[in-house]
Design goal:
Length: 65
């Protein structure tokens, strides 16, 4: 994982969040901890399945790819 890219992504998120707050518009993300943990759970589930090497290529099965 590239630390520089990660830090730039974090900085971009902080700036975007600050802009949303300054303009007094709702953020396009869960505003509460349970919603945020749901996003973290989705990410972890994705990584676990990729790490395990199992999966089904739905797009290929549908002929989209």
């Amino acid at each position: 994982m590239d630390l520089t890219l990660t830090l730039l992504a974090l900085l971009t998120g902080v700036l975007a969040g600050g802009l949303f707050s300054f303009l007094q518009i709702p953020i396009p993300a869960p505003p509460e901890l349970p919603g945020l943990m749901g996003i973290v759970g989705i990410y972890l589930g994705y990584k676990i399945v990729r790490w395990s090497g199992i999966g089904f290529d739905l797009l290929r099965a549908l002929g989209v790819q």
